[in-house]
Amino acid sequence: MNPQAGKTRHFSVVIPLFNREREILRAIRSCLSQDFSDFEIVVVDDASTDRSAAAVERVADDRVRLIHRAKNRGECPTRNAGATAALGEWIVFLDSDDELLPGCLGTIFLFTSQANGVDRFGFIYRHDDGRLSPDPLPEVSLLGFPEWLSFMEHARLSDALWVTRRSTFEDCRLPESRVSPMLYHLDFAARYRTRFVPKVLALLHSDSPNRLSVIGRRWDWARVRERAKDDVANLWQMLARHGDALSRYAPRKHGRLRRALVVSQAIAGSRRQALRAALRFAADDPLRAQRWGLVILSALGGRAMDYARRHHPGAAG
């Protein structure tokens, strides 16, 4: 039994893990080598099929906890599980193939110990190809809801090292499905304030063989349709809760979400709903030929829409 179990920490570094036996040790070492010690590491193994969990179990440090999940659920549910198990006042989300830079936790401590009403901090990631994210940084450092929407509207890269107050997960959690976390970020911004700090504190790697961008190339129609059903439900909630604000402060993002809903409805098998939504979307800007292309694809059905999305993305709006 971990002798540190139940001990409150300032930070919980939550690391979702799936089939990254080599990369997870790099991520853990980057935490254990920090010059700040008041933290725990919560690794949530999302039903790995390799020896990832065994690699974590060999780490001889009582600040490391491993949680096993019997069924693979995806990144967002796995992060939720880590947040639920965390003992730290602040949660640092770190992907299993990324790493914290030296001095990271000590720097974050300086900000979180004087948060002054801020419930989340975002620090800069350096990609292994030299790019920095977020890019561009928001025009203001302290973001309420309108400022967050403006950031969404203009961001080319939105990855950040997120440090979130644990208590916020009581009423604002990530989706319990494989959809993107965008709805979570919108809900969070509507309730809480985020501060961006222009300090590079973590390194984002892109060389892992099982990144989502690689996995997504293996086409499986049944899986595609099931994912589309989740996306439809998620996009409906997003537009219902935040559509008016998105239309006002982030109109391009609002349009992309409406288009994504049409695409997902068609792929999920809801052809009539997709066609009606596509016609409304086209009627809002009837001179845009791509929107009428979306109408045609909606009428043709899910396989045509999915083919266009994968091979001719411009044709899908």
Quick structural summary:
The chain is an alpha/beta fold.
Question: What do you see in this structure?
Answer:
There is one protein chain. Helix content is 46%, strand content 18%. It has 317 residues and is an alpha/beta fold. The protein folds into two domains: 9-204, Spore Coat Polysaccharide Biosynthesis Protein SpsA, Chain A; 219-316, no CATH class. It has helices at residues 21-32, 52-57, 75-85, 104-112, 145-154, 182-191, 212-215, 221-249, 251-268, 271-284, 289-300, 302-311; strands spanning 9-17, 39-45, 64-68, 88-93, 99-100, 120-127, 132-133, 142-143, 161-165, 194-204.
* CATH homologous superfamily descriptor of the largest domain: Spore Coat Polysaccharide Biosynthesis Protein SpsA, Chain A
CATH class of the largest domain: Alpha Beta
Structural class: alpha/beta
Instruction: Report mean pLDDT, rounded to a whole number.
Output: 93
**N- to C-terminal distance:** 55 Å
CATH architecture of the largest domain: Alpha-Beta Complex
DSSP helical segment count: 12
Question: What do we call the CATH topology of the largest domain?
Answer: Spore Coat Polysaccharide Biosynthesis Protein SpsA, Chain A
Oligomer: single chain
Describe this protein with a few key phrases:
alpha/beta; 317 residues; 12 helices; 2 domains; 10-stranded mixed beta sheet; Spore Coat Polysaccharide Biosynthesis Protein SpsA, Chain A
